[in-house]
UniProtKB/TrEMBL annotation:
Keywords: Amino-acid biosynthesis, Aminotransferase, Branched-chain amino acid biosynthesis, Pyridoxal phosphate, Transferase. Acts on leucine, isoleucine and valine. Pfam families: Aminotran_4 (PF01063). This is Branched-chain-amino-acid aminotransferase. It comes from Orrella marina.
Amino acid sequence: MNSSAALAFEITESTQRQSEQDRQKILDNPGFGLHFTDHMVVIDWSLTKGWHGARVQPYGPLLVDPASSVLHYAQEIFEGLKAYRHQDGSIWLFRPQDNARRMQRSAARLALPELPEEDFLQSIRELIKVDHMWVPGSGETSLYIRPFMIANERFLGVRAAQHAAYYVIASPAGAYFPKGVAPVNIWVSQAHTRAGRGGTGAAKCGGNYSASLLPQQEASRNGCSQVLFLDAQEGKYLEELGGMNLFLVRKDGSLLTPSLTGSILEGVTRDSIITLAKDRGRAVEERKITLEETVNGLATGEIVEAFACGTAAVITPIAMIKGDGVSAGREDAPAGELTMSIRKELTDIQYGRLPDPHQWMVKVH
Ligand SMILES: *Cc1c(COP(=O)(O)O)cnc(C)c1O
C-alpha cells in the first residue's frame, strides 16, 4: 500500500471561522500555544490501507476511542516548525524537509508509520492555503505548526498499533522575548534523566516530554526557567534541555556542543547554527562535554558564552547553570556577543531580511 503518488487532500472549509476582528485581536497578542487557526489536517493510516483520507477540516475536538493505544502506551510523536511572513506578504517555512525526515525517524523508533516527505510538506501547504490569514506579520511573530501522529487502534494488547492518524494544527505565536532577548538560568537535574542509551531520546515523542516535567518543576522552584539533563549512564555529560539543544562558546571563538549520542534530539536549529558558525570560519566541536569542565570553564573564563536553541525561541542566552552543589556563570550575565549575532543572522534568514545561501526557506503562500 506504499503508493508513491502523493495524497490528494479533500478540503472542508469551516463555516465558523473566527471573525476578522476576533482574529486580529488574537494576532495582536498571540502568546504561545493558546489560540488555534480555523482548520486542521487529518490523514488516517491502517496496516491494510496505508495512508488514506487526507483532508483539511474545521479545527475541533477528536473522537478518540478510550481503548486507543496512544492513551495507554504513549505511542505518539510530534514535530514543531514555524511559518514566517516576509515583508512582501509571502509565507515561508524553514527547512521543513528536515522536520519531515525527523518525523519519519521518530515514527520508525515509535513503531508508527512513516509519512512520505512530500505528503508532510503538502499537508502544511494545504493548511496554510486555508489559514494563511493567521500568519502574523510583525516583529518576531510566526505561525507555529504542530504536526503529530497518534496510534488510535482500539486494542489494549501491547504491540505496534495497526491504525494511526496524522494531524497538523497551527497556532499563532508572539515574539518569544517581547521585551528583548533576556538570558535565562538553567537547572541541572541530577536526580532525573530524560533519555537513556537505546531509548527514545532522539525521537520527538510525547513520552520524553512527560519525563521532563517533574525536573522542570524542580527547575522552576529553583528560579530557573529550563532544566538541563545529563547523560543517563554516568550522569557526567551535558545532553540537552527539555526541549532545546545546548551550545558553549570558548574564548578562542570556537563553539562546542554535545555530540549526537542517540539520546539527544537532533535539532534543526542546532544544525543550522553549526552551519552558520562554520560559514563564518569558526571551529565547531561536537563531542561529549562534562558538567565539570563546563562549570570550571565558566569560572576560569575559558567558556565565555552559553546558549540554548530550538524552533520556539531560536536562541536563548544562558546566564547561569545551577544545580545541587552547582553554580556557574553570573546572575546578571548579559547575552553573549556571538550568541546574539548568530541569533540575528538566523532570524534574518527566516524573515527574509538576508539572502538564504543554503536554500533553507520554502515558500508556501
Ligand atoms: C524539538 C526539540 C529540540 C529542538 O529542535 P528544533 O528542530 O531546533 O526545534 C531540542 N530538543 C528536544 C528534546 C526537542 O524536542
